[in-house]
UniProtKB/TrEMBL annotation:
Entry keyword set: Membrane, Transmembrane, Transmembrane helix, Transport
The keyword Transmembrane helix belongs to this UniProt entry's keyword annotation: yes
Family to which the UniProt record says this protein belongs: Belongs to the purine permeases (TC 2.A.7.14) family.
Annotated protein name in UniProt: Probable purine permease
The organism of origin for this protein: Salix udensis
Length: 362
């Protein structure tokens, strides 16, 4: 990589950069809107007799054409960058993007299985365990340091998930067997594990990426790979003709609402993944995981308010423990940032004293 590329990378990730703050805010808004809306829309699809898990998987990545806007507009319309789209996009990055995209496609399928069986509030609380996996995998992949606060968070969130598994099978949708309930439970746990793996893997890959536009280019390739996997699965299950039949025969809100639901899901899922990728690039995989976990509380509330999911007993205790673990983690991050700031100030002071001594000797 050239020196100019390194300079651009440091400039775009610098917290003092005005564009950095703008991108950070925009990406968090994308993540917030996409996470909450996609979760509720996916549940709406299954609640009204939508039954194809491949369709639910497909909509999570089929919105990849939307990524063409952040890729091409900055160069051709806004003229805010000199870099042409897909320049410096090496074969190595292409291959990695395809492989990660296939992993993301499998994650989407597991999420669809889990969301088809579980209440929104339950699946959201289970997905909070991705922060636990994220911490562990970040230690292995990006050498994240483990602190007492991190370990405390791991224990509490794991306990929260176990309590939920043991005590909330009674709130399963009517007609759902106990076996299918636990299929949904473990599918959701698997989705959390794969997504937790995705975050630090992308953080490591992003070390070779020097601008936000390249992040969106990688995301485009990943989404195309995930969509190809989902499309192959749909083809084995009847293809798009099955979607048409489902809209006319199975979906109890009619074809118009069916297609609005499908295309709304396409847009909101793309916003969610765009926001996640941007947060990891601009901050870290752990910060991305923290933001996802914080938003899961909104998904729980949304499930209770919109669909009337039960929210009492064990689920309340599980939520409190989950929040406790999350707050302990945030507090640990705060202590770390304060320690780093104090160390930086101390080093700066020592450097100033050293310069004064050198000047007096002259």
């Amino acid at each position: 990589m050239s020196n100019n590329s390194v300079r651009v990378q440091e400039d775009q990730k610098a917290r003092t950069n005005k564009r950095y703050t703008f991108l950070l805010v925009i990406n968090y808004l994308f993540l917030f809107v996409g996470s909450l809306s996609s979760s509720l829309l996916s549940k709406f699809y299954f609640n009204h007799q939508g039954s194809s898990r491949w369709v639910s998987t497909w909509v999570q990545s089929a919105g990849f054409p939307l990524l063409l806007f952040p890729i091409y507009l900055p160069f051709y319309v806004f003229k805010c960058t000199d870099r042409r789209p897909f320049s410096h996009f090496t074969p190595r990055i292409l291959i990695l993007s395809i492989l990660v995209g296939l992993m993301l496609g499998l994650n989407n399928l597991l999420f669809s299985w889990g969301n088809s069986y579980l209440p929104v509030s339950t699946s959201s609380l289970l997905l909070s365990t991705q922060l636990v996996f994220n911490l562990i995998l970040s230690v292995i992949i990006v050498k994240q340091k483990i602190t007492f606060q991190n370990l405390n968070c791991v224990v509490l969130l794991t306990l929260s998930s176990v309590l939920l598994a043991l005590g909330s099978s009674h709130d399963k949708p009517q007609g759902l067997t106990r076996a299918k309930y636990f299929v949904g439970f473990f599918s959701t746990i698997g989705a959390g594990l794969l997504f937790a793996l995705y975050l630090p893997v992308m953080e490591k890959i992003y070390k070779w990426i020097y601008c936000y536009e390249m992040v969106m280019e990688m995301q485009l390739v990943m989404e195309i790979a995930a969509t190809a996997l989902a499309t192959a699965g749909m083809a084995s299950d009847g293809g798009f003709s099955e979607m048409k039949r489902e809209s006319l025969v199975k979906f109890d809100k009619g074809p118009a609402i069916y297609w609005v639901t499908v295309f709304s899901n396409v847009v909101t899922w793309q916003l969610c993944f765009m926001g996640t990728a941007g947060m990891v690039f601009l901050t870290s995989s752990l910060t991305g995981g923290i933001c996802m976990t914080a938003l899961l509380a909104m998904n729980v509330l949304g499930g209770v308010l919109v669909y009337g999911d039960e929210f009492g007993g064990v689920k309340v205790v599980s939520t409190v423990i989950c929040g406790w673990g999350f707050c302990s983690y945030v507090y640990g991050m705060y202590l770390k940032m304060r320690e780093e700031k104090e160390m930086e100030s101390k080093n700066h002071g020592m450097e100033m004293d050293h310069n004064v001594v050198l000047a007096s000797n002259v």
